[in-house]
Amino acid sequence: MLYIIGLGLGDEKDITLRGLEAVKSCDALFLEAYTSILPGISRIKLGEFYGKEIIEADRGLVETKAEELILERAKKETVGFLVVGDPFGRATTHSDIVVRARHMNINVEVIHNASIMNAIGVCGLQLYNFGMTVSIVFFTETWRPDSFYEKIEKNRKAGFHTLCLLDIKVKEPTMRAMMKGVEEYHPPRFMSVNTCIEQLLEVEENKKQNVYNGSTLCVGLARVGTSTQKIVSGTMKELLDVDFGEPLHSFIICSDEIHEMEKEYLEFYKVE
Amino acid sequence: MLYIIGLGLGDEKDITLRGLEAVKSCDALFLEAYTSILPGISRIKLGEFYGKEIIEADRGLVETKAEELILERAKKETVGFLVVGDPFGRATTHSDIVVRARHMNINVEVIHNASIMNAIGVCGLQLYNFGMTVSIVFFTETWRPDSFYEKIEKNRKAGFHTLCLLDIKVKEPTMRAMMKGVEEYHPPRFMSVNTCIEQLLEVEENKKQNVYNGSTLCVGLARVGTSTQKIVSGTMKELLDVDFGEPLHSFIICSDEIHEMEKEYLEFYKVE
């Protein structure tokens, strides 16, 4: 039996009663720890709260050893795979595990929870006015992927808002690790709203299709669903210097066809 | 103090620990009961589970008496407004209450939960490949609103899937009630996947823009997130005769640019 359990967005209290019941019944617990983080709590604290050991499932484990470590075990025992947010809120990884489990005739139960994909509704923009979600990844010297630009263009032409999910780099091996095969990682990095805006403006500067610009109305969000949640609305340029604090950050590019009610709501979060 | 508390999608066990803590602290509890329902449980049973009385907040109460009954009370006491799914998953009503509460300087805290808008990810279609969500309302003799057609067209042209939220009619006053001012309601009605498809095909038949047709790949979903959840994928025509059982139902029109992994996942739910 494999439970895929959404943890919600904040800390240990954001699990559902159904989720906690499932956790209690598990013989082994894995925490997916590379597509998102729980801002309010560590894996160790979460384990103490459950009274159970939690094994960190990093990218390596999930992509190369999931079958052996998680799925084989789930054939005989009850295994819980814990996911920040909703199990299907973000990454394809979780669908992949379910597909593989089903091929192995393992019983799978999904326990849903809040995801950033719906919690962003808290800023007052209506979820049904959002188009396709885009991912903004950290630019490097040699890799500056800008496929999001075309998607944002489609959304804005159709009158949709765009949610931008910002990059997370956890357990990225260092160059030395890759060359010499040793275990050594860069410190974790989480993209800020500010970096996201810089990258967006750089791409607009290159493409010059005027999909958006410094005057486009946007919303920056940090730690949505936690007690330190921060939401600020303003133009892209205005938000460039706002300090959103600790991760995780998200960003919304509003449609120019924004509704009156949505505008009124955003006023509460207007940049000072 | 006003808590807006998401209940999730199934029954009393889908509330989060944080949500339950808030419920316990409330002097008064209202359940929003006209944009959605909890398939697995009634208001009375929910109240027994909490050990508290829950007042039903129907459309009339929320739209005309929210200020007096909910907000004035929240100025002095702790009031909980319970919402099926996530507080911002679906209706503008909830944003409206928050805006009004903020204007009255009432402290508002939102407790998120799963919403149909993200839980549909369970069928294997990736959430970020969805465009704008549309609402399909019951056609009547004289009122056959089809504004969804244009939105589906935009989504499909842009390569997005479309989530269709299906109409719910709860506490709709009868003609007699409206004429004579008495309290009398039609029995509750919930749109089925089948009715949704009939309406969609009728509109295509009239508009003839070939936005979709009987051969378009779709997914019907019922009672998502509950133990009786049913998901079936197939062409619009194939799904026309599938019995999805009890409410609530949802419907997805897939993009023709569906990814390989999404297709593989949908195979699990293929119509027999």
Automatic annotation (TrEMBL), chains A, B:
GO terms for biological process: methylation; protein histidyl modification to diphthamide. It holds the Pfam family TP_methylase. S-adenosyl-L-methionine binds at residues 9, 86, 89, 115-116, 166, 224, 249. PANTHER family: DIPHTHINE METHYL ESTER SYNTHASE, DIPHTHINE SYNTHASE. GO terms for molecular function: diphthine methyl ester synthase activity. It catalyses: 2-[(3S)-amino-3-carboxypropyl]-L-histidyl-[translation elongation factor 2] + 4 S-adenosyl-L-methionine = diphthine methyl ester-[translation elongation factor 2] + 4 S-adenosyl-L-homocysteine + 3 H(+). Residues 1-239 form the Tetrapyrrole methylase domain. Its EC number is 2.1.1.314. Belongs to the diphthine synthase family. This is diphthine methyl ester synthase. It comes from the Eukaryota. Pathway: Protein modification; peptidyl-diphthamide biosynthesis. S-adenosyl-L-methionine-dependent methyltransferase that catalyzes four methylations of the modified target histidine residue in translation elongation factor 2 (EF-2), to form an intermediate called diphthine methyl ester. The four successive methylation reactions represent the second step of diphthamide biosynthesis. Keywords: Methyltransferase, S-adenosyl-L-methionine, Transferase.
